[in-house]
Design a protein that fits this description.
Radius of gyration: 15 Å
Shape: globular
Distance between the termini: 37 Å
Number of helices: 0
Largest sheet: 18 strands, parallel
Helix content: under 10%
Number of strands: 26
Length: 202
């Protein structure tokens, strides 16, 4: 599905997709906004802003203050690519405070700030998480109740980013990788974990 010049504010669904449910791919390349949307309290309440049975591409804009069980702002069965699209203060009551993908999540010159997951992946939860800061990406103040205050994945890659003041209740204050982690030209400052790996756990 392709939408142009769209904003979604204060929408709510009892089930999946607080603002948008799409049975395929989502391509929003004109600074979309998803703000204050809620996927309700049902057991399948995933994707506070977007629930997609496919890939998601967002260019510019922001997803802010959305809420869901999994994927506070975005839930996708395919890959998610956020190109200069900021995710701010989103909340998941289980996994992926900002974004959940069954395949991969990539931030490109985009921020994740103040997102929270009650369990794992304060901002992002996926098999592969790539944080391409390009010297301007800030990943700050995200929290997870268990592991990966910023990101939880099988593979984590971070390049040219600022990773600051993220917190996990147990492991990996900023980043938690099950298998492999690569961090390049990145500043990690003031991250904390309740037990192991104040900044990184791999």
């Amino acid at each position: 599905s392709i939408f142009l010049d769209v904003s979604f504010w204060s929408s709510q669904a009892v089930g999946d997709g607080g603002a948008v449910w799409v049975g395929g791919n989502v391509n929003l390349d004109n600074s979309p906004e998803f703000v204050n949307n809620i996927a309700g309290t049902g057991p399948y309440a995933n994707g506070g802003g977007i629930y997609a049975m496919g890939t998601v591409f967002l260019g510019g804009g922001r997803s802010q203050s959305n809420t869901a069980r999994i994927g506070g702002a975005i839930f996708a069965t395919g890959s998610v690519f956020l190109n200069v699209h900021d995710t701010l203060t989103n909340t998941a009551t289980y996994l992926g405070g900002c974004v959940y993908s069954a395949v991969s999540v990539r931030y490109n010159s985009a921020d994740a700030i103040g997102c929270h997951a009650a369990s794992d992946g304060g901002a992002a939860y996926s098999s592969i998480v790539q944080l391409s800061g390009n010297g301007v990406g800030h990943f700050t103040g995200n929290t997870a109740g268990n592991a990966g205050g910023l990101a939880y994945a099988t593979q984590v890659e971070v390049d040219s980013a600022y990773v600051v003041s993220n917190t996990a209740g147990v492991m990996g204050g900023a980043l938690y990788a099950i298998d492999r982690m690569t961090v390049t030209a990145t500043s990690l400052t003031g991250n904390r974990a309740g037990i192991s790996g104040g900044a990184l756990f791999a």
